[in-house]
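Catalogue entry: protein

Sequence with per-residue tokens
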Amino acid sequence: MASKKGEGRTEGPAGSARALAAAALLVLLLSFFFFAPASSSEAFPRVAIIPPSPFYGMKLVLEHIALAFTFGDGARAGLAIDHADARLAEVAQLFRDNRTEGTAPVQAEYAFIMESYSSMRKPASAEERFARHVAALDALSATIRGSDWAPERQKLFFGIIVSNMRGTASIAGAVPPTGAALTSPDRLVAERAIGDAEGALYVFSRLPGSSEDACKANETLESAKRLLEDRQYIAARAVSSELLAYLSSRLSNGSQG
């Protein structure tokens, strides 16, 4: 018996076009649901879907699809920065909720965005947007530091997260951090490590019974600063990173140990 022509098969180019249009419509509808901001009255709008929400993975998939179907150097680079801005809003929301467990997937996706952005061809308009993104990173860092309602440990944790994201942005091959155009990348990394250790030491020194250990830690921090001034950037980073690990461990266990 002769089978019907075209049964169980796609209808050629016309069928493919219809399928592509349907997929695009679905992405558009889902994007409205996943990406519509919950509030726009703050510098960093509140975000409804953040880790560990089961919908967060779908949100990122939709972002990747949107980027794949965006053409033109300026448009692609601009959308990548939009996605990076979205990660900042998510960190701000996690900070408000004090949900430290949700920061890892956000940082991983941010690193992926920056890696993708660094390989794109970028017109001047994209570089300007990236510079505004770096300024937004600084604004988020200042917001965290100036939040009187948050405990010091919470501010320290999220401050380090934003500092790491800023470091990732600074090596994306686009715009260096503000005021650092003539500074070597190794020095920038060492300065960030020293700054993180200094913040941790400030919190640690306020724990009861920590004065003696805080004095020793301060001596170590000063030695890292001297290495920095001597342009021994890798050694300065190593010393301050080791100090940060020690202080973080002590902070997580109170003043014992």
